[in-house]
Design goal:
The chain is mainly alpha-helical. The protein is built from 13 helices and no strands. The two termini are 36 Å apart.
Amino acid sequence: MYRLETDSDIDRGIKFLCRQEPAFARAAARINAPIPLRRRAGGFDALLKAIVAQQLSVASAAAIWARAEAAGFTQAQRILSTTDVALREVGLSRQKIKYVRALALADVDFDALAVASTEEVVGVLTQISGIGVWTAEIYVMFSLGHQDVFPSGDLALQEAAKDLFGMTDRPSANALKTMAVDWSPWRAVAAHVLWAYYSAIKKREGIG
């Protein structure tokens, strides 16, 4: 299994994609800047933070996470031993309290996930209430560094693909997943490029 470990891995992936699909060369020219690796730590904290951030702005998620950290609610046993009232006080909704407790109870073997395949990791994580395929794939990409994972359900990736490939409508998750088959074994880098391209076209349109 190949992993993205350094920025040079991103560069190698981009070169492959530009040879494989001319549209990526256009995207790289439009971005005109280095695309960072964006690796992050894995483990319980990473998944907990992902759940906290669901359907929230970056600022709101950061504020809730800061309160949770201050209260010690970023550890599984602490979450399980505290009350719903205390968890609500740091900003968690009733639904997210259910999700963070489910994660704490799951007792995930993160060491085993670190050496598992993408399919195995996604299979394990999506058994936990509150963790869908997108969240699991994002964990695989950014926390484990898998080179050939592509979160096709991501709306920004879909919008970027629509613009880059001149599509009339935004592709569905399944349609984008099918497109991405040709970008293997560098599909994670393709996602990095499309996210950067999305940012570039939003700036072009005066958004963000």
